[in-house]
Amino acid sequence: MTRPDNPSQGPGKITDTAVAEPPSPSTGTDADFVADRQRSFFSRLYTGTGAFEIVGKRKTWYIVTAAILLICLASIAIRGFSFGIDFEGGTQMSVPVASSEITADSVEKVVTEALGEEPESVQTAGSGNSATVQVRTETLDLAQAEAVTRALAEEFGPELAPAEVSISDVSSTWGREITEKMAIALAVFLVIVFVYIAVRFDREMSIAAMASLFFDIIATAGVYSLVGWEVTPATVIGLLTILGFSLYDTVVVFDKVQENTRSVLQTSRRTYGEQANLAINQTLMRSINTTIISVLPIIALMVVAVWLLGVGTLKDLGLIQLVGVVVGTYSSIFLAAPLLVTLKERRPDVKRHTTKVLNRRAGITSGAVRTDDERPVHRRRAAADTDEADRAVPTGKRRRNR
Length: 402
Known about the structure:
CATH topology of the largest domain: Multidrug efflux transporter AcrB transmembrane fold
Strand order of the largest sheet: 3-4-2-5
Strand content: 5-15%
Distance between the termini: 20 Å
Number of domains: 2
Number of helices: 12
CATH architecture of the largest domain: Up-down Bundle
Largest sheet: 4 strands, antiparallel
Structural class: alpha+beta
Helix content: 55-70%
CATH class of the largest domain: Mainly Alpha
């Protein structure tokens, strides 16, 4: 028999004891797919609260991606590439800038008059005492090389001596071998990546990752075509490097998407696309930090190599890495993940789940479906209940038979 805690109270009195109730859920608990937009921009970016709608606006990003591809493909088809001497062969002359009269235009004029035809390319590399004018022509014989050297010395002497003009030849056969090795290296890399992605992810993730990788190749090549810089072996090395970076960034985003969507079909709070968008937001700050950390040394490399040391090879390597890192980050966030959601939503089970979630939200909005904060709260009984009530409510303990 239950006794009242306070003996002064009669047996028929019931204490008005305060009842502990669970805290009231915040507004929108049943629809917590809504992003927290009360925070500042940088707070949302840093905490990854899902406030940036990327998957939901994927059609816009598809249009932007298609425009980038069209521009790059048009540049590749119309302008083409300026392959370096290592690929096409020929003769390259290096003229030191010994006086202010030695410029790219003046050197080009002298070489044209000496050979009777314009050189293929003339550009200045380096700065200060290390500055040189690089002239590339078709393969020259000994008489033509001597004629050009003598003409340069006569035009810019006595500051420029004939011995200071360096001339090197690269055979077209060797250049063709380099080109074939470059194509083989790129093909082997893509095959290895395809096998890894096929084993590591499911079918939709593999397709999205490969599409992102091909976009990186075309976009980077298109930018290089637009700029017009020569394609050298350093360019190929840089391309393979940034493709690995892009793949790494895509794998990080997809890992988070897998984690967020592992049991999404067993819930009714968020759709697959919303969970994927949350994953993008949660990895967005990491992608930005990684990109900034990667870009800063590349910019420093280009500054030191081009303006201080005058090393043209490092300039080519720096440009393609700079473009590739930025393009790789863009494709991982704005192409690979949204494309993954588009492919996933074509599956029947994901379609049914999306429909279920949207119908539930429509019911919540209309009041037909009860939300968490509308469900009844069970209150605990007062401390002085009757004996009959005590016997009616099981205590969870088994009575021992004596």
